[in-house]
Automatic annotation (TrEMBL):
It comes from the Bacteria. Residues 19-139 form the Activator of Hsp90 ATPase homologue 1/2-like C-terminal domain. InterPro entries: ASHA1/2-like_C, START-like_dom_sf. It holds the Pfam family AHSA1. Transmembrane segments: none annotated. Signal peptide: none annotated. This is Uncharacterized conserved protein YndB, AHSA1/START domain. Belongs to the AHA1 family.
Length: 143
């Protein structure tokens, strides 16, 4: 078996939030808040915890928590099994929080798109922008 090109692409979205890292961290790690801005889930902030994200579109993402650095960094796998290789995705999403004078800078990186997954890559780029707009609404509400 030969391995296809190991070159992968990443979607990176960076955004400044006018809220402290503690508040942003809460929205990234509490299941009821994650559901409001991302998807239904059974997330637990524990390295090694396997969970699912369930999209309104009917898809289920298989995930596993890889990194937890409270108020700094969160990473988990973001895998979607599909019979079409263009959509069969094994990726890692990493959230990096950096306090700023005005709030918190959030960097979201989803790494692992193959060069042949142009549609999935484009969909992820648009999707993360929408997710972060919803995240901003959740943060502004101030639960």
């Amino acid at each position: 078996m030969t391995e296809a090109s190991s070159e992968t692409r990443s979607v990176v979205i960076e955004r400044e939030f006018a809220f402290p890292a503690e508040r942003l961290w809460r929205a990234l790690t509490q299941p009821h808040l994650i559901e409001e801005w991302l998807m239904k889930n059974d997330f637990k902030p524990s390295v090694g915890h396997r969970f699912n994200l369930r999209g309104e579109w009917g898809g289920v993402l298989d995930c596993e928590v890889l990194t937890i650095e409270p108020q700094k960094r969160l990473a988990y796998t973001w895998n979607f099994s599909h019979e079409d290789a263009a959509f069969d995705l094994k990726s890692v999403v990493t959230f990096t929080l950096t306090p700023t004078g005005a709030g918190t800078h959030l960097r979201v990186e989803q790494a692992g798109f193959s060069p042949t997954q142009k549609q999935a890559y484009g969909g992820a780029h648009a999707g993360w922008k929408q997710f972060l707009a919803k995240l901003d609404e959740v943060l502004a509400r101030g639960d």
